[in-house]
Design brief:
Elements (H helix, E strand, L loop, with lengths): L2 H17 L11 E4 L25 E6 L8 E6 L5 E7 L2 H15 L11 E15 L4 E14 L5 E15 L4 H14 L3
Parallel strand pairs: 1-4, 2-5, 3-5
Antiparallel strand pairs: 3-4, 5-6, 6-7
C-alpha cells in the first residue's frame, strides 16, 4: 500500500470515529420518573359519591391494573428539541403507587376504609399517562388518570359502578422528572367518582 492509500485509509478511519457515537456512551432517550406523591394543585376535598350510591359503611379498597400497554413501566411519552419521541418510564411499582395515593386521598376525605370490610370498592386502573411536549422554551406537561370502579355489598351484589377520571396540564422545564411526577400526582388526586 502506498503512502497516499495509507493517508486516505487513516483519514477515513478517523472520520468514522468522529461520526459514529462512542460505544457504550449513547444517551438513553427514555426519561425515568420516580413515583412520588407530590400534588401541586389544591383540588378540594370533595368526597367521591360513587354515582350517588353511598357505601353503607367502611369499605375495603382493592386496586387492579387494567392498562393495556405492552410494557407496564412505560407511563408516558415526550418529544425533544428536534421533535424526536421518547418514552417516559416509571421507577417503581405503578399499581403500588396508585393504590397508596388512593388510600391517602380516602384518609384526607375522612372516608372510612377497613381491610376487613365485606363492602368492597374495586378500582381498576385503565389509564395512567403523562405526556411532555417540547415548546420553544421549556415543555408542556399533561397527565390523565382513569379508574373504572365497582362497589359491591356484603352479599356480593353490585351497589354501583362507574368511572373516575382526573387530568391536569402544566408548563414546566424540559425533560423534568419532577414535572412528570407533579402532573401525575395531581391527576390521581383529581380522579373521583
Amino acid at each position: 500500500m502506498n503512502t497516499t492509500h495509507r493517508c486516505v485509509a487513516a483519514g477515513l478511519a478517523a472520520l468514522a470515529l468522529l461520526i459514529s457515537p462512542a460505544q457504550g456512551k449513547e444517551k438513553d432517550p427514555t426519561l425515568r420518573v420516580p413515583l412520588e406523591y407530590s400534588p401541586q394543585e389544591a383540588l378540594g376535598s370533595r368526597v367521591p359519591d360513587f354515582g350517588g350510591k353511598k357505601a353503607p359503611r367502611a369499605v375495603k379498597i382493592v386496586t387492579e391494573d387494567g392498562r393495556t400497554g405492552a410494557v407496564p413501566a412505560v407511563v408516558g411519552d415526550g418529544t425533544d428539541d428536534d421533535d424526536r419521541p421518547f418514552d417516559i418510564s416509571a421507577e417503581g411499582d405503578v399499581m403500588g403507587f396508585a393504590g397508596e395515593v388512593v388510600r391517602r386521598n380516602f384518609e384526607e376525605w375522612s372516608f372510612p376504609v377497613d381491610d376487613a370490610s365485606k363492602t368492597v370498592l374495586t378500582l381498576r386502573l385503565s389509564r395512567f399517562w403523562v405526556a411532555e411536549r417540547n415548546q420553544a422554551v421549556g415543555s408542556m406537561y399533561s397527565a390523565e388518570v382513569r379508574w373504572i370502579w365497582t362497589l359491591t355489598g356484603e352479599s356480593g351484589e353490585t351497589l354501583g359502578w362507574g368511572t373516575a377520571s382526573g387530568d391536569t396540564k402544566r408548563y414546566g422545564k424540559e425533560r423534568s422528572r419532577e414535572n412528570c411526577t407533579e402532573v401525575l400526582s395531581d391527576a390521581l388526586k383529581e380522579a373521583k367518582g
